[in-house]
Design goal:
With 68 residues, this protein is an all-alpha fold. It is built from two helices and no strands. The termini are far apart. Helices cover 75% and strands 0% of the residues.
């Protein structure tokens, strides 16, 4: 009976460890997503349009100390 209890306890503890690991990975992914995805969809569209203008040569990228 004690052997069976030990096996059940090992399985339960292993399942808890895996659940915690999955939770921790998800929590860190959400934290990074919140940290690095600061632009909303409208701002991202504007940014993409500005990058396109720079790449086409219509707009010059900002360089520190350069005067127009």
């Amino acid at each position: 009976m004690l052997d069976r209890f030990g096996e059940v306890l090992s399985v339960v503890l292993g399942a808890l460890a895996l659940a915690y690991l999955a939770y921790e990975i998800d929590r860190r992914k959400r934290k990074l997503r919140e940290l690095f995805h600061v632009l909303g969809s409208e701002e991202a569209d504007i940014s993409a349009e500005l990058i396109g203008l720079v790449e086409s040569g219509e707009l010059q990228p900002y360089t520190r100390g350069a005067r127009a």
